[in-house]
Amino acid sequence: MTAERDDDRIDYDFRRLEAKWLPVWDELQPFDTSDDADERPRKYVLDMFPYPSGDLHMGHAEQYALGDAVARFWRHRGFNVLHPIGWDSFGLPAENAAIKRGGDPATWTYENIAQQRESMRRYAASFDWSRVIHTSDPEYYKWNQWLFLEMYKKGLAYRKESLVNWDPVDQTVLANEQVLADGTSERSGALVVKKKLTQWFLRITDYADRLLEDLDKLEGRWPHKVLTMQRNWIGRSYGADVDFVIEGRDEPVTVYTTRPDTLFGATFMVVAPDSDLAAELVSTASAETQARFADYLAQVQKTSAIDRQNADREKTGFFLERYGVNPMNGERLPIWTSDYVLADYGHGAIMAVPAHDQRDLDFARAFDLPVRVVIDVTQAEEPPVDADGRPLAFDEVDPAATGEATAGDGVLINSGPLDGKPKAEAIAAAIELLGERGTGRAAKNYRLRDWLISRQRYWGTPIPVMYDEDGAEVLVPEADLPVRLPDGEGLDLKPKGSSPLGAATEWKTTTTPDGRPAVRDTDTMDTFVDSSWYFLRFLSPNDSTQAFDPAAAKRWAPVDQYIGGIEHAILHLLYARFITKVLHDLGHLEFDEPFDALMNQGMVVLDGAKMSKSKGNFVKLGDELDQYGVDAVRTTMLFASPPEEDVDWADVSVAGSGKFLARAWRVAQDVAAPVGVDFADGDVELRRAVARFFDEVPKLCEGFKLNVVVAKLMELTNVTRKAIDSGVGPADPAVREAAEAIAMVLDLFAPYTAEDMWQALGHEATVAHAVWPTPDAALLVEETVTAIVQINGKVRDRLEVPPSIADDELEALALEADGTKRAVGDKQIVKVITKAPKFVNIVVKG
RNA sequence: GCCGGUGUGGCGGAAUGGCAGACGCGGCGCACUCAAAAUGCGCUGUCCGCGAGGGCGUGCGGGUUCGAGUCCCGCCACCGGCACCA
């Protein structure tokens, strides 16, 4: 920029642009989607809605920059884009804040929402502000209650007593999905303990097969990682249920095994100490054993998940003085108890085959129980070998000697009718044999457990159930919904192991529909219930007669593009898939997967580590916005890397993005060709660059390569600058064409800058509505292309040739090229591969 | 242990089996300036060479191919998920 220009022009100033355009957009409401008659094709682009814990932070800035670029992209492609926003506003932080500072969770929540909403407005997120929802509004959570009643009536919501996860810090139960692999709560970080309680569950396990199998439909459209995580989480396994007659017990005990082929190798049985079965079996044992059992059970219940999951732990347990009978060979098997068997998986009891299961082997070796090999792994198709590749002999892989169970493939031995069969065949044969005898059958099992939704906290959806004087469950009639939360002010919200609602005596006391006295359920629902269907509420956010309008659902749903963090890979996404299938089965929806495509954006980190206020490596979004402006922050977020990768704020230059935006903006200021000029009269080279740009950019956007789109914008800005300063000059129509192209695409990243450029170029707001042109095919064909000439695969020369050149012409030119002559010398040409017009490879010898 | 992903300059990252390192950051140099900032221009993988030019180079080792960052096989490292789930 020259000195004169400084004198007579206003320079790029993001503060001025933000102040100038926000009120205009407020007035225009450019992203309103209320016109049902709009005939453009539709897209539903949804960003995972935020939890209102304080103001927006850098993570939000990344997520909403990405979601907004995607939404804006489809609008520029001529789509009617639904891009709504709301708040996931029930939950513990509000309640904990209220306890800490006094006051009401509602006040804290709605103040934060107001702040976040204002920040999103400033951030220029292209939301349809007419569809805002808050899950903590009675108008919203009424439909959680409706959903619960619907599910109850179908037997999908039920109450049972079981061992559940208890968070001693938040003083509430948690779903399995909310407990991390290390046994801590994903929310509070506390070590979760097991507690026996009666709680409400949703029968997600009924949907396990569909939740698993329908993941195949999402292949290629959801991140592979998320699909894998969900498959792991559901954890389906195939095997058999086998009935073992128990001496002194009428009913046989069923065990689940994935290896019915190894039944002849079973040498004992094990039951989970915390199962009802263990308590029953031990009741006939000696007084000494019973006492020992009581101690052991107490010990086990104290053991944290973190310890219990440690497979290296010493095996513990003891003999229950009972015997089962192997249905395959009639053998008597001692029954032991040990905490390596889990009460809530399979049937809480196993048959132990120490030779072929490492856990059983560890136990057998610890307590001197017999080990019987029934699979000869040395006869497998790929038998085990030592370090030098020599096949191992049978006695070298003997589990009893090596301590290593042989779980792999092999051929059955010591197994009567199964002898000689390979593993897979033997499994099928064993199941058939069991079937014939009526002592077993094929079965499958899941890691997935039913979804525990009761929470002993205040700030959530009341469960619409009451209990009469006999304690029987009575549903709140649909007409009486919502069951509103009592005012939180004045209620003691401190966690004390039972719901604060229990203290709301007046609220709690009610009557059944037929007039009998009753008390309400005082627990509230897991907030993941709220978020499992919120994407449907956006379609008819103010409908007071139904959860969502089926006609609107038909019009917009399912979500075409969902965008959010990987932290919800299992929790929210699994629940939303489940509830969608339930709503489908109840006849409310035509589709049964909620999110057609999913994109997980990466995190914003600092110096390679997750940002954390307590560790001091923290960047405040507000500071960045104040210093560099919204556009520069948004552009930086998306230019830094492909959106699914993490962005390290230490590696980026927000100032650099700002420099680029100023450069682009100045190009628009310098355009001298009048608005409406015929671009066909413009400089052909620059026009070709614009055509290529509009050819490439949509493909890049669809592939989420937004960082490359920013790079293309920078390239086009650079060549346009050159055309103005040292080329065809500012009055050339192609310069205008290029500047308009930059404005229209820059809108994805920097809406303020793009809007101001658009205006400077003589157009009316808003650039967000400008549909990108289809490039002229003639301009995409180059006049000349650079053909590369390789000798033995190494580039030795380049030739400018017409794109229509024939193979033999190009080959002739290549053989005469200087670089060819130099590199070939007196060597012999063996072969020439020519792919006109791009390249020639000459293979030489000698 | 099982499953999945990722490895490219000083850094972030580009690259339908066909010019590796686009674009940017950082660095160096230059112009403008009394000076600085801002702005603009140029150079910037590495080694050899004054240069022309050449050697090497996408985690490691093989393979397919006229040609491999890209495809195949085997490793290594890091990241993530699952894991006493029978």
What does this molecule look like?
The protein is an alpha+beta fold and 846 residues long. The protein contains 30 helices and 32 strands. The strands form 9 sheets. Strands 8, 9, 10, 11, 12, 13 and 16 form a 7-stranded mixed β-sheet that branches. Strand 11 (318-325) and strand 12 (332-337) form a beta hairpin. Helix 21 packs across helix 22, helix 24 packs antiparallel against helix 25 (706-726) and helix 26 packs antiparallel against helix 27. The longest helix has 21 residues, at 706-726. The two termini are 57 Å apart. The protein binds one RNA strand of 86 nucleotides through helix 1, helix 9, strand 9, strand 13 and helix 13.
Structural class: alpha+beta
Largest sheet: 7 strands, mixed
Query: What is the radius of gyration computed over CA atoms, rounded to a whole number of angstroms?
Result: 34 Å
The amount of beta strand, in percent, is: 15-25%
Mean pLDDT: 91
List how many beta strands DSSP finds: 32
Detail the poorly predicted runs.
1-8
Number of helices: 30
End-to-end distance: 57 Å
- The share of residues in helices is 25-40%
Estimate the global geometry from the Cα principal axes: globular
Index terms:
disordered N terminus, 846 residues, RNA-binding, 18% strand, globular, 37% helix
Short description:
The protein is α+β, with helices and mostly antiparallel strands and 846 residues long. The chain contains 30 helices and 32 strands. It binds one RNA strand of 86 nucleotides through helix 1, helix 9, strand 9, strand 13 and helix 13.
